[in-house]
Amino acid sequence: MCTHIAIPNRDDLKKKLGPQYGIGNYAHAWHAAGYAHPIVPAVASGHDHDVCGYSWGLVPPWARDAAAAADIANKTLNARGETMWELPSFRDAAAGNRCLIFLNGFFEWRHEGKEKQPWFIYTDHTPFAVGGLCSTWVNPETGEIRETATIVTTPANELMTFIHNEKQRMPLILAPHQWQLWLNTAAPVTDVKQLVAPLPDGILKAHRISKLISSRTQNTNVPEVQQEFRDTLF
Q: How far is CA 132 from the centre of its chain?
């Protein structure tokens, strides 16, 4: 699972992608929780240089009403890369509506006995792309159009196996040279499926953080949530 992320600010993303990209409106976040369904910046198939905002939690077009859409969105923050081509919630998007979602990092918890220790995982403190799927849902009662997306996950690499030691999953992180193939819905499915693999070890970085991120009373969308936690015993 990947349900806690850091969302880059627009200036940093523009610098990373270059002047040929248009950057739409969305909110930067030091920490964003998936079940709040924040807007994430993404580039969708067929819109290769337009970064737009998508509600996190994919809602397929066939969701019958707002209640059903909300229920589905809570269950579709992630799509397993191994099964997304077959599952009804994801298969149409996997075939025809893939996207790149840009993050500054993500958060996971390592289980240590009865305790859970949070970690922040990132690359070089600049935005990076993860594979995603996107879908447009239209509320049949109001006509509201909602653009939604999910983060594709893969089995964990060595680092993430250590950190996410219970479920051993990680986001599908794509290098720039892989972006075009991921977004190309005309590409052979077998070629695209080869991209669905753990990131090689040695690229991701990570450090322990405080349990501020788990607080239900404090604001967790602050820079301190990403700061390295140093236990006084070490």
A: 7
Q: pLDDT value at position 48?
A: 83
| Domains assigned to the chain | 4-226 (3.90.1680.10)
The DSSP-derived string for 7-29 is E--HHHHHHHH-TTSEE-----E
C-alpha span between 8 and 77 (Å, rounded): 18
Cα(34)–Cα(73) distance, integer angstroms: 10
Residues facing 111 on adjacent strands: 116
Q: Which stretches of 34-172 are assigned E, i.e. beta strand?
A: 39-44, 50-56, 78-80, 98-103, 105-112, 115-122, 128-138, 145-155, 169-171
Which tens digit of pLDDT belongs to each residue from 44-90?
999 989 999 999 999 999 999 999 999 999 999 999 999 999 999 99
In residues, how long is the chain? 234
